[in-house]
Amino acid sequence: GGCRECVPPISAYTNETFHEWEDPTDLWFGPYKDTQALYYIVRKGRLPVRRIRYTGIYNKSPVASVAASTLEGEHPLTVEFDASESSDPDEDETLSYEWDFDDGSDPSTEKVATHTFTEKGLFVVKLTVTDKKGLKDLAFVDITVGVPPVVTMISPKEGATFAVDQSFAFVARATDGESGEAMMDDSHYVWEMRQHHDQHWHPYLPPTVGNNFKSLPAPSPEDFLASTNSYLEIILVVTDDDGVSTTVSRNIMPRTTTITFTSEPVEEVQLLVDNFIVKTPSDVISWENHPLTLSVDEVPTNFEFGGWSDGGDAEHAIVVPTTTNSTEGNNQLHYTITWRQRLISQTVNCSSTDEGPCNMCMGHCKTDNDCAGELVCYEKEQNESTVPGCAGSDFSRTKWCTVDLYAPTPAPTEAPTVPLPTMSPSAPDDGGEDGGQVGLAGESGAKCGQNYGSLCALSCTILVTVFWMFV
């Protein structure tokens, strides 16, 4: 399994087929002898153009393999090179060998060759293996002769974290490995920054010569899911006057925030966060200062958008707040979307049913001036004998209750620092006399009250409009 908390993070996914290839970037079919072969270009490796050919029953190329007794040391340096692990897929093939030591000396044709390097520097030793029909394969090994520089990366410091658009200072100190003298010339320093995502990486800052300068602003995650398995790698290569190098690297982790999305009163709805489907209730991990777009993917049946807890429109953009450079824990953020039930109109024959609005006539106004906040508008029949669901002594009256159509929305405030508070919608108004109420009996700000209505025939049809408000 994967490990998100590891440094660097470890993905649970591994591509066993291509992950060892040296980053192929393009491929095409081209001519090869009397047939065709597949050619491809790689970003890494010493041979940028490769060829894959169909062999069938024909001769196959050998496979070169090189081993070295040591890869680095002070000069003069003697190294033993061994090609014994080289092979050929064809049986009874006799292989020949040629060593190029990259220092101007004569090549060796031994399977096991010993060579002494008398100069300092980096030498790329090449082995060429050839079968008796002339097909070849190459293998390489790097040999460093001399004492490499001693390098200290000062900034970014160990354990540093980043937010989107944050820049880093690239500062290092190096001394010559043999003399111990400080290497002050900035031309000795080459910096690089890579954006890692899952099992691959993208070049973000290309190899750049210099020291004590600012980097590019840190990127956003590559996509929605990349927030959980991405980081930056800073690589520094310092090379002395003899061509001997030291490479140091440091992983910089993003500062993350867990965003909780909830919905009220319908708990399970489908949202879009950066065009990625998120079902409430759900937690989403994002990076500080990363812009996100929130929108509605599915509207619940018989409901319409009521509001976001931050006062935003149904579709709006947010920016994950930045905090301090603290590396402890994961910041928390909470967004709630609310829904209100749509206006529903229905016709009910109160003489034939004891369900529906007639059954709701009782007890919804606790007093003449106090709404229970359930019904918005209803009517009663006069004759209780024809309306089984409506019992009581005041059938000649019409009563109504009012509730807030919209809960007041607080003005947006600046995002606080760690710990981030949980954002939730404002509580509904308590039925006071402020302007947030609408009396559906026709008066603005109406309270529970009484109104003598007209009489109605025994089997009259009543149009009842029920409006439920949820916040």
TrEMBL record:
CDD domains recorded: PKD
Region of interest (Disordered), residue spans: 412-439
PKD domain sequence ranges: 62-152
Signal peptide bounds: none
Record InterPro entries: Ig-like_fold, PKD/Chitinase_dom, PKD_dom, PKD_dom_sf
Pfam families (alphabetical): PKD_4
Composition bias type Low complexity, residue spans: 412-421
UniProt name for this protein: PKD domain-containing protein
Organism phylogeny: Eukaryota, Sar, Stramenopiles, Ochrophyta, Bacillariophyta
